[in-house]
From TrEMBL:
Short name of one Pfam family: Amidohydro_3
Organism whose genome encodes this protein: Marispirochaeta aestuarii
A molecular function (GO) term: hydrolase activity, acting on carbon-nitrogen (but not peptide) bonds
Amidohydrolase domain segment(s): 48-485
Source organism, top-level taxon: Bacteria
Name of protein: Amidohydrolase 3 domain-containing protein
Length: 493
C-alpha cells in the first residue's frame, strides 16, 4: 500500500472537489481522505510526500500518431549543424534503426555551404546501409547510394536529380517507414512511451497504419501492449470493418481522410479560400462511402473514426452520423477527429447525438487569432467558425483532447491551457471543462473502461502530478503514478 500525501487531489466530480490524501493498494485507489486528520495513525503504508502538487486522474491524449513521433525522436537530429563537416561527422556516427539510417531537421539555410551533402559525401559517411536525410520542413530529402539501389522506385529507375523533392521525396520517406522491422517499430513505441510519460500522460490513443496498409503493425503493437509504461490505445487505420473485427479492435479507422488540411488548401469548405478564391478544397469520398462505413461499424458495435477538418467535411460526416444514429440509436461514440471548422448546420445535425470529437487545442494556439493561419486562409468569418468547443459541448458532443503528435508535441497541460484561451472567446472552456477533455471525457471515449477518469475509490490509481492548477500558465508536469507506482517525481531526492 502507498499513501500519497501533501497534495490537492482533484476528483474531477465538480470544479472544487478535492481530497488531501490518497491510499493505493494493488494498483487501485483504496481510500481518499478529505482531510489529512482522517488518516489512521497506525496505517501501515509507504508514505509519499507530493510536495504541495495538484493531482489529477491520469491524463489521456486521445489522438496521436505515436509511431511517427517515436521514430522521429530516435532519428539523428541535424538541427544543430552549421557546416557540412558537422553534418558528415554526425552522419558517420548515426545509430541505425532496423538496418536503416534516419536523419532529419537539416536546415540547409543554416549550413555555411548552403546545400545538402552530395552523394559522394553521404556514401563516405554511411557506405553500407540505406540513409535518408530530411530537410527541416520534411518536403525534400537526400539519400545515399545504398538507398537509391534499395528503394523500388515507381518509375522503374533510380532518380538522377538529387536532392529529392515532392513525389520522389514522399516515395523515399514512405519506403523508409515501411521498411522498419519489428524491433525498430517497438523501439519507436518505447520512445513514444517515454516521451508521453514525461509529458504527464498515462494513456495515449494512437493511429496505426496509413489508411489501407496491412495491419501487421497493428497486431505487433496490440500483442506488446504490456511492455510499455503508458497504456497505448491502438486504432487500426483501415476502413474494412470485418478486418477490424478479426483484429479484436473495438474501433475502426482513425485519420481516414474525408478531406485534407487547411494549411494545404485541401480541407473541404462551403466557401472559397480567402487567399485562393478559385479553390474550396474537396471532399475525398462521397456521402455513401462514409454512410456504409459508419453503418457497418455501428451494426457491429465498433466505434467508427474519421478525420474531418473543413466545414463541408464536418457537415458530411455529421450528416452520416445523424442518419446512422436515427436509424439505430446506440450509445456508441463514433469519432469526428479534429472537427475543426464547424458550421451551425453541423451543430444542428450533431445535437443530442453520442458523437465524439477528439480535438486539438494546440491547433488554435498555433493558428488561431488575428493574422494567424486560419485568418489568412479562411478570412475573419471563417476563422470564427474554427474550434467551436463550447458550442460542440452544448450540443452534447463528447469532446476529448489530443495533440495529433507528431504534428504538435505531446503536451496535455498546453492543450488544457489552449482550450481555456481559445482565440474566439465565445468558444472557450472553463478550466474544469478543459481538464475533463483529458480525463473524464477521454475515459468515456475508451468505452470498455469504467474505472478511469475520476479519482474515486475502486478506480485505477493512474495519476498526473502537476506543480499547480492544470490550466495555470506556469504549471508544469511534476510526476506520474501508473497503477499505483510512482514512475517519477521531479525535485524528489
Ligand atoms: Zn487527421
Ligand atoms: Zn491525426
Amino acid at each position: 500500500m502507498r499513501l500519497f500525501t501533501n497534495a490537492r487531489f482533484c476528483s474531477m466530480e465538480a470544479p472544487d472537489d478535492h481530497y488531501d490524501a490518497l491510499l493505493e493498494k494493488g494498483g487501485s485507489i483504496l481510500r481518499l481522505y478529505r482531510r489529512s486528520g482522517e488518516i489512521p495513525a497506525d496505517l501501515h503504508a509507504e508514505r509519499i510526500d507530493l510536495d504541495g502538487a495538484w493531482v489529477y486522474p491520469g491524463f489521456t491524449d486521445t489522438h496521436t500518431h505515436s509511431f511517427d513521433g517515436g521514430l522521429y525522436s530516435l532519428c539523428l537530429d541535424l538541427g544543430g549543424c552549421s557546416s557540412l563537416r558537422q553534418v558528415i561527422e554526425a552522419l558517420a556516427g548515426v545509430r541505425p534503426l532496423g538496418g536503416l539510417a534516419f536523419a532529419w531537421n537539416l536546415d540547409v539555410h543554416r549550413i555555411r555551404e548552403g546545400r545538402f551533402p552530395n552523394l559522394t559525401e553521404l556514401d563516405r559517411a554511411v557506405p553500407d546501409i540505406p540513409l535518408i536525410v530530411k530537410r527541416v520542413d520534411g518536403h525534400s530529402c537526400m539519400v545515399n547510394s545504398a538507398a537509391l539501389r534499395a528503394v523500388p522506385w515507381k518509375s522503374g529507375s533510380a532518380p538522377q536529380l538529387l536532392p529529392l523533392t515532392r513525389e520522389l521525396s514522399r516515395e523515399a520517406s514512405a519506403w523508409f517507414q515501411s521498411m522498419v522491422d519489428e524491433e525498430g517499430i517497438l523501439s519507436a513505441y518505447d520512445a513514444a512511451s517515454r516521451i508521453a510519460l514525461k509529458a504527464g500522460l498515462t494513456r495515449v490513443h494512437t493511429m496505426v497504419g496509413d489508411g489501407e496498409s496491412d495491419p501487421r503493425h497493428f497486431v505487433l503493437l496490440r500483442d506488446n501492449l504490456e511492455r510499455f509504461d503508458v497504456d497505448f490505445v491502438p486504432y487500426p487505420q483501415i476502413s474494412n470493418v470485418n478486418r477490424a473485427l478479426e483484429l479484436g479492435s473495438p474501433r475502426v479507422g482513425g485519420c481516414l481522410l474525408s478531406d485534407g488540411s487547411i494549411g494545404s488548401h485541401t480541407a473541404a469548405l462551403n466557401a472559397p479560400y480567402a487567399d485562393q478564391p478559385e479553390s474550396r478544397g474537396t471532399l475525398y469520398r462521397d456521402q455513401d462511402f462514409w454512410y456504409r462505413f459508419v453503418r457497418e461499424a455501428h451494426r457491429e458495435g465498433l466505434q467508427a473514426c474519421v478525420h474531418a477538418i473543413g466545414e463541408a467535411a464536418v457537415e458530411q460526416i455529421a450528416g452520416v452520423l445523424r442518419r446512422v444514429y436515427d436509424e439505430d440509436p446506440k450509445a456508441l461514440h463514433h469519432q469526428i477527429i479534429h472537427c475543426e471548422m464547424v458550421s451551425d448546420r453541423s451543430l444542428e445535425l450533431l445535437e443530442g447525438l453520442p458523437a465524439a470529437a477528439p480535438v486539438q487545442p494546440a491547433f488554435d494556439a498555433l493558428w488561431g487569432g488575428e493574422g494567424g493561419l486560419y485568418e489568412k486562409h479562411l478570412g475573419k468569418e471563417g476563422r470564427a467558425r474554427c474550434n467551436r468547443y463550447a458550442s460542440l459541448a452544448r450540443a452534447g458532443v463528447l469532446l476529448t483532447g489530443g495533440s495529433d503528435w507528431y504534428i504538435t508535441p505531446l503536451d496535455p497541460l498546453g492543450g488544457i491551457r489552449a482550450a481555456t484561451r481559445l482565440s474566439n472567446p465565445a468558444e472557450r472552456l472553463s478550466p474544469f471543462e478543459a481538464i475533463r477533455l483529458y480525463t473524464v471525457n477521454a475515459a468515456k471515449l475508451t468505452a470498455s473502461d469504467d474505472r478511469q477518469g475520476y479519482l474515486r475509490e475502486g478506480y485505477e490509481c493512474d495519476l498526473s502530478i502537476v506543480s499547480g492548477p492544470g490550466e495555470g500558465e506556469k504549471s508544469a508536469v511534476k510526476g506520474v503514478v501508473k497503477e499505483g507506482k510512482l514512475l517519477f517525481l521531479r525535485g524528489r531526492t
